[in-house]
Amino acid sequence: DLVQASARLAGEDIQKEQEPDPKIWQLHNKYIICQIKTGLMVIDQHVAHERVLYERAVEIMDNNVPNSQQLLFPQKIELKPWEFEVYEEISDDLGRLGFNLSRLGARTVMIEGVPQDVRSGSETFILQDMIQEYRRNAEKLKLEKRQNLAKSYSCRNAIMSGQKLSLEDMRSLIDRLFATRMPYVCPHGRPVIIR
Question: Which helix (H) or strand (E) holds 41?
């Protein structure tokens, strides 16, 4: 009887560990709600991921850390004249960030590798969106080149509002967010967390 009771108790403990954590939820595929001792914490998943990607991008570029994943099928992209001008200006830092790019023609670029955080299948869109965002930031905010590139990268590559996240993804994002230097605001100054 004692052995059966022990086994039953052990089985209950295992079952409890496998149940989903009731302290983390996703609301409207946009916010992560966390139960904390003093109430609730609401995290905007897009701006939280922006903060994580921004700090990672700055660190990678400053320390010249390898961050490129080679593409199985390189992507060719034809840039508009103004896009190519911006590309030429930031190509060295794009390389430091993890983009493995080569020039093919007058305005044609081959994407052979991308940073680890770039979603598969979005390589050309991410590069064009980053160039657009970089130009907009340069005109409006007058940022330093690497800071501008890191903001452009994080904004265009972050988890989007409306994207469903698994419990594991939410936990990982929360852990990575609180490992950053400034977890309470995104690189653009928007609040990440409301308590």
Answer: strand 39-44
Q: From residue 59, how far is each of 133, 147, 190 by CA, in Å? A: 20, 11, 21
Query: Residue 25 carries which side chain, given as an amino acid letter?
Result: W
Alpha carbon 16 to its chain centroid, in Å, reads: 32
| pTM of this prediction exceeds 0.90 | no
pLDDT tens per residue, range 43-64: 999 999 999 999 999 999 999 8
d(CA 96, CA 89): 13
Mean of pLDDT values over 140-144: 82
Decide: 47 and 192 in contact? Cβ < 8 Å.
yes
Joined tokens for residue 167: 């419990």
Read off φ and ψ for residue 34, nearest 5 degrees. -120, 135
Judging by DSSP bridges, how do beta strands 68-78 and 24-27 pair with one another? Answer: unpaired
In 126-158, which positions are buried (b, 16+ CB within 10 angstroms) versus exposed (e)? bbbbbbbbbbebbeeeebeebbbbbbbbbbbbb
Name residues whose C-beta falls within 8 Å of residue 56's C-beta, 6 or more positions apart in sequence.
117
